[in-house]
Amino acid sequence: MFSRGGGLEQALSLERFGRYLDWAAGDRARAIELYTLNTQISESLYTPLQMLEVALRNRIHAVMTEARHEGWFHDAGFLLTASQADQLAKAVEDVGEGGRREPTPGRIVAALTFSFWTAMLGKEYETLWQYNPAPHWQPPGRKGSPTQGFLRPRSPRSAP
After folding, report:
1. pLDDT at residue number 51
2. Number of other CB atoms surrounding residue 64 within 10 Å
3. Cβ(111)–Cβ(129) below 8 Å
């Protein structure tokens, strides 16, 4: 498809395609193969990453709803990073569609970005996960990170 006339470089920009040319030591055909391989790998990771995002957001929201309430992310001073506050404001705006839809907690949760949810596991929230929401996250006597057992089932199958 892009094998003649530099069409791939024009479509991607020299800056983007240039990395592949560098990796291929200037061999344009090899650079196209590398770009194609990268695209295929990215495609194969899309569904698992999408499922990870959904599982992570739903799990965090369920635990925080149990520990606090359904709209926990609106609590003054709860969000500890400016980027999360910005992402929340954008999600509320996007969900509300200019006042045409009610920005319910469920809709807002679904609209928040993956980076919002991964930030919830960052160092800023370590104290939250150690002491706040629910003791079933880290059974007594468990060693390791406070978030280590975060995605484990809530009903224990066996003692740690």
Report:
1. 95
2. 22
3. no
